[in-house]
Amino acid sequence: MIEGSDLDSHNFNLRAVTELSDKLSVDAKATYFTQEVTNRASTNGAQGLLGYVYRMPRNVITNDLRNYQVDNPSTPSEFDVITYSDGLTGNPYWMSYHDENLDRRTRFFGFFKMDYDFTDWLTAFVRVGADYTDSKIERLDKPGHHFWTTGQYDLTMNNYGEFNTDFVVTANRDLTENLNLIATVGGTLSKRTTEGFRQFGDTFKIPTKFFFANAENLRAPAHSPVMTKKVNSVYGSINLAYDDFLYLDATGRNDWSSTLSEDNRSYFYNSVSLSALLTRFIDPTQETFDLFKIRAGIAEVGNDTDPYQLTQTFDVPGQGYLGLTTLSAPTVRANPDLRSETITSTEFGIELAMLNNRLNLDLSYYNINTKDLIFDLPVAAATGYQFFRSNLGEVNNEGIELTIGGRPIQNSRLVWDTTFNYAANTNELVSLIDGVDNYTYLSTNNGNMQLRAQVGESIGSIYGTTWDTNDAGENLVSAEGRHVSSTVDNLLGNAEPDFIAGWFNTLRYDNFSLSFQIDGRFGGQFYSNTSRNLDVIGVSERSAQYRESGITLTGINTSTGVSNTEPITAEEYWGSLAVENYIYDQDNIRLRELSIGYQIPNTLDYGIQSASLQLIGRNLFFFSKDAPDVD
User: Fold this and answer.
1) Which of 396, 426, 563, 573 has the maximal Cβ count within 10 Å?
2) CA nearest 349: which of 296, 300, 398, 298?
């Protein structure tokens, strides 16, 4: 919980269903949602509130910081934040109670649907749906702020809209005594729009009044005109069921997307699956098996891109050079020949239910291959761009998913349901484009740690600096006696877990219930910049080491070429460690959720269908975790 923050939300629903005749029915629903979040404090990044809490010296009395500004300030210096250090150090209470952050959202969504039964086996419906969201975000840092010392006001407004019209005709008929057919054909018209506006100003002329006309430096408004995306689709499916044990499903769909060129905007994809209920053959009397089902399927899916990615556009700055009209060069070169991405997946599975449905199992294997990814690929600065947008590469994902559930206890008063989940996925970047074998998609500010997609490796490889060595494998130390860091091209781990697992339980005793979920993540690593910062500024327990005595590192001094003899302080030691020292395993087991409930009896006596009370807690604690300092 962050002090000074608040959330108010309201949800209004209206639903109407009526039958106009024995063949025609109408269904309509409308929902209006409002949400207002006050002072949703940023908890990450350079200006995040928690960053200043972490960095706070341990001898600071936090309650003293509630006095974050002098009373009735009049001079510029009196407006300055009172905090625990000099420089650009924020006071968490100022950020919670004095600065203002307001996030307002309103959303309307609903649909109108008409169903018509032509015969007992042929039906159709037409549906119109809409979803519109308006967002207004205001951020005010008042004069005296640790970074915006003269104050700043930032206003962002966005709206998002989606309008869909679709129809589906369904035929459901027995072709023979043992063969049933369900066939559908349909189409969809989809339209999505986005629009944005931003205004920014800083340095308030009157330091107690906060509006744009009072800002000395007012940037030109940034307006993102309406962006429209349209996708038209036709599709169909066939389901054949033979003798209530063999089922064949096939689908086909063609999309026409406005975000792709005329030559590429049409793309077709399909799927086919086969499943068989073998219970009657394996256990005709169902003494053991209530369900024995196997399934297999293959599917292809197309995927387009965002609007206006085909033609190169340029920004017009609000204030050009020497007052002239200038154009700003984009960082990404558009590509008029973009094609849709193609995702092909295959799956095999088995479902079992046993012992009067007291025990069940669902096991599946999948393989997903993605080609022609739409991606921004880094290019040399000599091209005039930072990235080229293009179709490239191939990514493969392969894994298994397992669910085992059961009801170990069931009697007139006590019921225990339990479910165990297991999932393991391996992915590989098979290829990018000729001459390119890796892509860095995330990096620290100084570039000493990078997350890369490397051909032949799992996406999420962590590369970073290590304690550098000479050709003989001896550690290198600088002339001042500090660690010498290597280049960033060292594979230190991968962010992807080997597998994840969960255990969910519900116990019901009379009208009381207890539910809990335990989750585990096993394998994979991450880089903790938080741990590094705690060491560098000397507030972690680790950083107390060498504080009194200092330390002389063992290694070869690069200045003298012989064994190092230069002592360094604890501050110099912790400040020169390489990234490899802050790579931690992600292994953890946590109590994800705990809920205690009570079902109120005899509610019908008061005209209430049902009522219950629940106390819910989420992410309550860890049973075990390998990483220090952070979650």
Assistant:
1) 573
2) 296
CB of 501 within 8 A of CB of 520? yes
pLDDT at residue 560, as a whole number: 95
What single string gives the DSSP state of each residue in 492-522?
Answer: EEESS-SEEEEEEEEEEETTEEEEEEEEEEE
Q: 597 near 572, Cβ under 8 Å?
A: no
Alpha helices in 423-569 (DSSP H): 529-536
The predicted-structure confidence for 59-108, as pLDDT tens digits, reads as follows 899 999 999 999 999 998 999 999 998 878 899 999 999 999 999 999 99
CB–CB of 155/199 below 8 Å? Answer: yes
* Neighbour-count burial for 428-453, b at 16+ CB within 10 Å, e otherwise: bbeebeeeeebbeeeeeeeebbbbbb
Cβ(631)–Cβ(530) under 8 Å? Answer: no
Element (H, E) at 376: strand 359-378
Token reading at 434: 């000729």
CA 66 vs CA 40, 81, 84: distances in Å: 18, 11, 11
Beta-strand pair 332-333/387-410: parallel
Is the model's pLDDT at 421 over the cut of 80?
yes
How many other CB atoms are there within 10 angstroms of residue 9's CB atom? 10
Specify whether the CB–CB gap between 328 and 317 falls below 8 A: yes
Q: Alpha-carbon distance 597 to 142, whole Å?
A: 45
DSSP letter (8 states) at residue 97: H
Strand-pairing partners, residue 275, are: 247, 295
Amino acid of residue 473? G
Residue appearing with tokens 């030559």: 263
622 has which bridge partners?
Answer: 590
Q: What is the CB neighbour count within 10 angstroms for residue 590? A: 19
Residue with structure tokens 């990514």?
395
Cβ–Cβ < 8 Å for 18, 26: yes
Chain-centre distance for alpha carbon 153: 28
Identity (one letter) of the amino acid at 455?
Answer: V
Closest listed residue to residue 297, CA positions, set 247, 360, 235, 354: 247
> In the predicted model, what is the mean pLDDT of residues 568-592?
96
Nearest to 267 by CA among 396, 397, 392, 372: 372
Q: Are 414 and 509 in contact (CB under 8 A)?
A: yes
Judged on CB neighbours under 10 Å (0-12, 13-18, 19+), 535 is buried
Q: What is the pTM (predicted TM-score) of this model?
A: 0.87
